[in-house]
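Final report, Chapter 2: Outcomes

The project's central promise was a pipeline that accepts a single protein chain and returns its three-dimensional structure in a standardized token representation, suitable for archiving and comparison. That pipeline is now operational. To close this chapter, we reproduce one record exactly as it appears in the project archive, with the input sequence first and the structure output second.
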Amino acid sequence: MTKILMLFDTEDFLSPQTPDMQLWWAQEVTSRGITASFQMVGEMTRKLVREGRQDVIDAIKQHDIGYHTNFHSIHPTHPEGTEQLSLPEAVAWVKGREIQGIKDVHDVFKKPLLSYTSPGISWTPATLLANAACGIELAFCVNNYKHTYKPFWYCGNLIVQYGVGFESAYGEYNTDFFKQRFEEVLDKAKKEEDAVFALYTHPGRLATANHWDIAYARGKNPPIHAATPPPLWEPGALEQHKSRVRKLLDWLQGRSDIEFSSVSQISAAYKSRPKKDLPALLDQCGLQAGQEGHLPLKPRSSADDFYGESMEYHYKWVPHIDGFNPTKIFKQAEKLAWTTQQA
């Protein structure tokens, strides 16, 4: 049976409405017995603390906690910051950028960070290696996926696919559009044994008519205090969206061909299977902890065919300038194809 995860990309630190939307989502899924994962941005976490929103923190703590970078779309993104660096330099850059965010999220929620979600299309091999070195060994949104909803290992991370976003039922869209998208993804997933994918949303999008990071589009980089929050939906849309979400959750929970799982359950299940996590990679190469940036870059071989079947590369994402094409990162990723293994 295909397993379904619920993930919340918890990131919009510009909009005043977002903490209340996070609270609503956390309480809604808790009331249904679903253990979700809140993928927390460091700055969003610090905002909750600054604004005294312990109610939101406590509601989110009922669920798994993941990491979604320290500043999300604020430049430089990971590809922008590492495009000219060697792999050891890039791993060090990511750690320098992210270590404070990881610490802040952990200290506020007092729970292990079980997974990582890339902001948009912005992951790099160094991102995954740095995260694994920090104890985060499950990753979502590692660019586009091709052909598989079965988890696989790459760069010391168990890679799991995103599926359908609840925003596809907002605004001019409706619940039928979401259902159509869901059935398309599920039909593909059913063809694979042990398939897993995530349903996801950005909590603030219940209230906002666009993503918050349009303020950072095409290289723009205003300071946080000067960035313009996204527009809101028209009056009445918020309650309409909540109603649609409840109906869709009723529909999903009434199905007999899927099973709601959690990141913590998936992570535990795959620990007992043969794995290619970071300790295994380091051991294979005779390296020590802290030397993940020195994993060898090897020419891709016929034994790495699964890499080509499961991943493809591009960085077409709103914050990046048109034509952004860091070919050095692409080459690093392909030369780490040897780290790939079906889970």
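Archive annotation: Residues 2-342 form a domain with the TIM Barrel fold (CATH 3.20.20.370).
This record, like all others produced under the grant, will remain available to the consortium after the project formally closes.
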